[in-house]
């Protein structure tokens, strides 16, 4: 739990990973391209004090993850969101067995989500059912730009993807996290397009679609979809580090998200080990929309508490001390949330 100026914040890091990008696990040049791209994001968006040496960045292991994420007591719970990337890494990028073992060792602090890929066909459906039982899945992380043989991506609207979403509904896997937005070398930009979320969210209203990275750089597309689909959420992974390098850009992102989605559908994520959560939480609590960006309402303490943990805790039924809970906002289910704050700069 994080405390500042007499306020307590229950913190859930909704997107972390335990990866292995060491040379011995790289299947080909694309494995190196992928982790090098990650490292460039890490190095270029982090304060100098938070930049790791490249070799440390390739693999952290469970002991270091626990220290980095929970060591100072700020983060209350974190959720693994693994990526397979089997075409680039011998044992995959996200380390399933190591992460799951860590979650079993610390069930009060860690939730393990898994992945599926519709291109695995019927065998993959059988594996999803087995994984749901073994891991006790409440959520999955989907990577629509992942390569699979000759294929360089898939869509949520593919017929087989619908079979997997129907299986999620059947198995009680209600939280569908999807990487949508920033491309990563060598993956293709168009395969991360956010457009297919609209169709799937309409057809599966009993599933929650958490769009990681809030569709950046297609923020406007994402907001216009999410505002009309009450089961679409914004994950701040990759977006929130701009609080350091481009604070006005981050203010625009938060202003648009709160305006279009409301305060109950935005989730904090460090994207560990891309970044560590402590400095992001500290900066976010201190952050405010600049006064000259008057078209956006100020970020209240209540909004920050919901974004930092209460919204994710609700999706995953995590226990929150009663004194820290907040009611849902009295907002419409669809459409802009803050009409009184709109276009103030024009008045």
UniProtKB/TrEMBL annotation:
- What single Pfam family name could you report for this chain, choosing any that match? Amidohydro_2
Reading the lineage from the top rank, the first entry is Bacteria
What range(s) does the Amidohydrolase-related domain occupy?
A: 12-318
Q: Where is this region: Disordered?
A: 327-347
Q: InterPro entries, from UniProt?
A: Amidohydro-rel (IPR006680), Metal_Hydrolase (IPR032466)
Tell me one GO molecular function of this protein: hydrolase activity
UniProt cross-references to Gene3D superfamilies, sorted A to Z: Metal-dependent hydrolases
Its protein name is Amidohydrolase-related domain-containing protein
Native organism is Modestobacter roseus
